[in-house]
């Protein structure tokens, strides 16, 4: 079995952890901010040190390439370097920098793969600044258009295209190309592996996810003199929706989860009723039909709440992913690699979103999990040990090489 340079991987992760620090030891590296630009520049510099070419596509996705003995579609390894507002140092980052370590290791060994291998850093996996999440891999896979991506706007009214150009990462390459296979390493983001003391999670499938962005429209009015029965407060319509979402989540627990994660309103000032509110809802369930049912129940209750609040409502956007099944041959490569390395492993489902879901629509795809301490994530306290990183990246290395070198 091949093994990586564990110290170099950890040093690389710790260098990334210096770029865009949060306030409590984690990271605040929102997509397409100057901090994101800085970590992208660092990735480019690392690639250049080892003579790996870097290509950037029109969505800002970055591809670090190791040439193979023959040409043809590359074996792709990837994840993301952007983070949440209270992000950790490893969510997504381990997948990109673990991929870089795979290339570096092969170079050290003088191992030229049969097929080229590329490492991708996807733009805006998190969806924390521009909604929805995973939008650049969605465009890469033909689920959304590039113009749609360019037109997304953040809370300050900045258009995604302008943010992309401001950090110099609107690339020339077309978005989307043939790929031989897609491998993604990610921290688990739940406590199962850590609690059970298992080294490796082999992800066979995901929870079905249904996302909704809902807009409520009311009328501004004075909070004092306006009679209760004449009010059209958008905040109230959205709040009924938020509470209903939470109640549906409890009704389907523990398998089902429903979250009202974001509520914005305008003018959102004391002394005035809001004429505008937007609510973000997401629903997750291991069974597709149940996820659809949860979404439909939430929509029905949103309609009731809007009527009570006397506000209009509409679904502004929706997103769907997660029920894709991962490629059995790739899943087996992870299992074989973990076995060969003497690591404990278990099959599991992913409850979080990953670019791999979209990639699975265009190429054989599979995700690999490493444990994370206590399952803490999307939190600055998110942490892993060097052994977690090393074990998982060793599995990634051997699985990727087996794929790239096959006949
Ligand atoms: Zn992530």
Key terms:
407 residues; alpha/beta; Aminopeptidase; Alpha-Beta Plaits; 2 domains
Task: Please characterize this protein's 3D structure.
The chain is α/β, with parallel strands linked by helices and 407 residues long. It has 2 domains: 6-207 and 323-404, Zn peptidases (Aminopeptidase), CATH 3.40.630; 210-320, Alpha-Beta Plaits. It is 36% helix and 21% strand. It contains 12 helices and 12 strands. The strands form 2 sheets. An 8-stranded mixed sheet has the order 1-2-4-3-5-12-6-11. A 4-stranded antiparallel sheet has the order 8-9-7-10, covered by helices on one side. Helix 3 links the parallel strand 3 and strand 4 (117-121). Helix 1 (6-16) runs antiparallel to helix 3 (93-109), helix 3 crosses helix 12 (386-404) and helix 8 (234-252) runs antiparallel to helix 9. The radius of gyration is 22 Å and the shape is globular. It binds zinc ion. Zinc ion is lined by residues 80, 91-92, 125, 186. Zinc ion binds next to loops.
The CATH homology group name of the largest domain: Zn peptidases
The unreliable regions are none
- Describe the largest sheet: 8 strands, mixed
Counting structural domains, the number is: 2
Total strands: 12
- Cα radius of gyration in angstroms: 22 Å
First CA to last CA: what distance? 19 Å
């Amino acid at each position: 079995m091949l093994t990586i340079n564990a110290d170099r991987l950890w040093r690389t992760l710790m260098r990334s952890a210096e770029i865009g620090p949060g306030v409590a030891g984690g990271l605040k590296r929102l997509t397409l901010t100057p901090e994101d630009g800085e970590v992208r520049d660092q990735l480019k510099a690392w690639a250049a040190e080892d003579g790996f070419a870097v290509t950037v596509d029109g969505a800002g996705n970055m591809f670090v390439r190791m040439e193979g003995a023959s040409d043809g579609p590359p074996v792709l390894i990837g994840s993301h370097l952007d983070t949440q507002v209270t992000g950790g140092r490893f969510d997504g980052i381990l997948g990109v920098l673990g991929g870089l370590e795979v290339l570096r290791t092969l170079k050290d060994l003088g191992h030229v793969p049969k097929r080229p291998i590329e490492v991708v850093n996807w733009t805006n996996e998190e969806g924390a600044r521009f909604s929805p999440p995973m939008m650049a891999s969605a465009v890469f896979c033909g689920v959304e258009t590039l113009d749609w991506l360019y037109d997304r706007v953040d809370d300050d009214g900045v258009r995604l295209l302008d943010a992309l150009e401001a950090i110099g990462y609107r690339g020339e390459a077309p978005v989307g190309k043939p790929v031989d296979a897609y491998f993604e390493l990610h921290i688990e983001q739940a406590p199962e592996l850590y609690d059970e003391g298992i080294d490796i999670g082999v992800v066979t499938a995901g929870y079905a996810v249904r996302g909704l962005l809902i807009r409520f429209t009311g009328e501004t009015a004075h909070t004092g003199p306006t009679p209760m029965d004449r009010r059209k407060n958008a905040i109230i319509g959205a709040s009924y929706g938020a509470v209903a979402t939470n109640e549906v989540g409890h009704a389907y627990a523990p398998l089902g989860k429903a979250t009202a994660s974001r509520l914005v309103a305008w003018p959102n000032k004391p002394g005035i009723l809001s004429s505008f509110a937007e609510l973000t809802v997401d629903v997750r369930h291991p069974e597709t039909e149940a996820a659809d049912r949860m979404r439909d129940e939430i929509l029905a209750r949103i309609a009731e709440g809007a009527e009570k609040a006397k506000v209009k409502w509409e679904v502004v956007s929706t997103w769907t992913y997660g029920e894709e099944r991962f490629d059995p041959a790739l899943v087996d490569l992870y299992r074989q690699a973990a076995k060969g390395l003497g690591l404990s492993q278990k099959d599991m489902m992913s409850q979080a979103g990953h670019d791999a879901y979209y990639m699975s629509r265009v190429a054989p795809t599979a995700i690999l999990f490493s444990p994370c301490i206590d399952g803490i994530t999307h939190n600055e306290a998110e942490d892993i040990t060097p052994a977690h990183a090393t074990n998982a990246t060793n599995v990634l290395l051997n699985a990727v090489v087996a794929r790239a070198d096959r006949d």
